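step: validate -> pass
step: tokenize input -> pass
step: predict -> running
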Amino acid sequence: MNDLPPDLPRLRTLETWLTMTLERVRQQIAAAEQRERERQQGEERRPTPPDWVLELGIGVGAPPAEVHVGGCYATGKRRREITREQALAALNEGVRACAHCRPDTDLGVL
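step: predict -> pass
step: emit ->
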């Protein structure tokens, strides 16, 4: 059972089409490999999240809004990296602990 054409011109046409298709597949493979390399480089170069984050209030002189564990998804855009001692002090001063990441539990303050 032969599903290829018997004559040379059609076989050459098929060969040309297959060669072109193979080149397109190889280009797509190369592009996918490049994207994967870039993704891995991005992960390797991503800075480590801080241990503790202070979410700042809106406006100049506004009190801080919340204390978060570093890397918390609920942290707003206005934030500042703080130390463990600063996080403890902020919680003791009445700054709210994030309800999602619960930094008060990690710091031993309940």
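step: describe -> The first strand starts at residue 52 and ends at 55.
step: cleanup -> pass
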